[in-house]
Amino acid sequence: MASSRQCTHAGTWYSANGAVLQRELDHWFATAVPGVVNDDSVRAVIAPHGGFAHSGATAAYAYKAISAASIRRIYLLGPSHHYMSDRCLLSGVELYESPLGAIRVDQEAIAALMATERFQEMDQEVDEAERSLEMQLPFIQAAMAGRDFSLVPILVGALATTAEP
């Protein structure tokens, strides 16, 4: 059985009910009118990672700009709120769960990044305690609209110039 990161913040920071969550996402995406929509040149978005009641509509603006047609791998970076590290951390699980279903973690990309020796592996307890990555998952799933893709979740530690080579 594949190892999974559970959606530990569902039910508190956002709805744990997949049907309710999908309706909320549909509403936010329908009402978001960003300056750029489904643009192939968009390569990155910056979105909030707060509770959906406060930030859901704003996050939808960011994700609505993505043209999912050519995306196969998503690098997801989020700040660490609880675990101190001078490096970026990579998840050791195979799947990230959300109320909308599981997302496959790209093991090939994780292995390549680990091989640089500039990353640390994040244990599952740290992974599940942190919300910044999890809060993006339903928006990614909505933006990707059922397309096949993989995820490379990266938790960003307290980076400093002294840690650079």
Task: Spell the H/E element sequence.
Answer: EHHEEEEHEHHE
Alpha-beta content class: alpha/beta
**Strand sequence of the main sheet, in spatial order?**
2-7-3-6
Average of per-residue pLDDT values: 91
Helicity level: 25-40%
How is the biggest beta sheet arranged?
4 strands, mixed
> Runs with pLDDT <50, length 5+?
none
For the CA atoms, what is the radius of gyration? 16 Å
**Percent of sequence in beta strands:** 15-25%
Précis, in short:
The protein is α/β, with parallel strands linked by helices and 165 residues long. The chain has helices spanning 18-31, 52-64, 107-115, 124-129, 137-144, and strands at 4-5, 73-79, 88-91, 95-98, 101-104, 119-122, 150-156.
Describe this structure in words.
- It is built from 5 helices and 7 strands; from the N terminus they run βααββββαβααβ.
- It is globular.
- The model has no long low-confidence stretch (mean pLDDT 91).
- 30% of the residues lie in helices and 19% in strands.
- With 165 residues, the protein is of the alpha/beta class.
- Strands 2-7-3-6 form a 4-stranded mixed sheet. Strands 1-4-5 form a 3-stranded mixed sheet.
Notable traits:
165 residues, alpha/beta, four-stranded mixed sheet, three-stranded mixed sheet
Which SSEs are present, and which pair or pack?
Blueprint: E1 4-5, H1 18-31, H2 52-64, E2 73-79, E3 88-91, E4 95-98, E5 101-104, H3 107-115, E6 119-122, H4 124-129, H5 137-144, E7 150-156
Parallel strand pairs: 1-4, 2-7, 3-6
Antiparallel strand pairs: 3-7, 4-5
